[in-house]
User: Which sequence fits this backbone?
């Protein structure tokens, strides 16, 4: 299955063998309003999603 974050092909489901992102068939996209969440919530975001949020601000 293809990782939706780094596009690495993985042989098993679960987490990506390259970036560690969860592998599932859908991707939750981030949006600008999430930038105002407290750190206690943002620490659970994937690194790629945090970079996208940073580009918004």
Assistant:
């Amino acid at each position: 299955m293809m990782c939706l974050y780094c596009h690495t092909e993985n042989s098993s489901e679960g987490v990506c063998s390259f970036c560690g992102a969860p592998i599932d068939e859908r991707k939750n996209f981030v949006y600008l309003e999430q930038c105002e969440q407290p750190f206690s919530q943002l620490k659970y975001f994937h690194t790629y999603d945090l970079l996208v949020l940073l580009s918004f601000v």
Notes: The radius of gyration is 12 Å. Helices lie at 39-42, 47-56.
